[in-house]
Amino acid sequence: MLEVLLLVVAALVVGYSKTSIGGLSAISIAIFANVMPARESTAAILLLLITGDVVAVWKYRRHADWSLLKRLVPSVLPGLALGAAFLAVVDDTVLRRSIGVLLLVLAALQLALRFRSPDTSGLARSRPAALGTGLAAGFTTMTANAAGSVMTLYLVARGVEKSRFLGTGALFFFGVNLCKIPFSAGLGLFTAETLRRTVLLIPFVLLGTWAGLHTARRLSQERFDQAVLAATIVSAVALVAR
């Protein structure tokens, strides 16, 4: 019963994060990685993320920054390929711990940017930063569905305001998550049980997206930035402490 409740909460958070505080999706990643075998959890939550992506794209597509997307996309596919290779050779324990450490490192980087180097927009606008972000996003999203933290780091460093943040992230993750399907299928991660759980949890994802839409309208830019950072830190600690 507790396992079912945790998965329902995770599905609600997935939907909520897709339409409001993106970093919160890492909490769902932590829950799934603890409730299910880590490898299978990446496929299960992927399908829920895509459900949330559809709603987010429909709502925020007009605010997407296509110039940012064009800079990020070229290096995403190599990152996905590296992530798939990593998944093929590691066991559940290594993967779970890797996910936690990765999220914690990303959270630390975000804190460093926020409190030690407030004016980082020049560095973040460079082409190497965009290529590195795309590569890291591809790898982290393939191995842990954790690219939200990478994108948060990049977009916050560039000083992207809330609406553009949500619109750009919505289109980016929808495209990236669709690209991950053949990789996950090739690794044999879409089991019958995974698909069954996904179908049962989709209504809770949609409920979460509705709640997120109402929250996003009320958050100021400052509160939004603080919330996405806090969500990443809490999620990282939850996985590392497991």
TrEMBL record:
It is a multi-pass membrane protein. It comes from the Bacteria. InterPro entries: TM_pro_TauE-like (IPR002781), TSUP (IPR052017). It is found in: Cell membrane. The keyword Transmembrane helix applies. Keywords: Cell membrane, Membrane, Transmembrane, Transmembrane helix, Transport. The chain crosses the membrane at residues 42-60, 72-89, 95-113, 134-157, 169-192, 199-217, 223-241. The keyword Transport applies. Its main location: membrane. Belongs to the 4-toluene sulfonate uptake permease (TSUP) (TC 2.A.102) family. This is Probable membrane transporter protein.
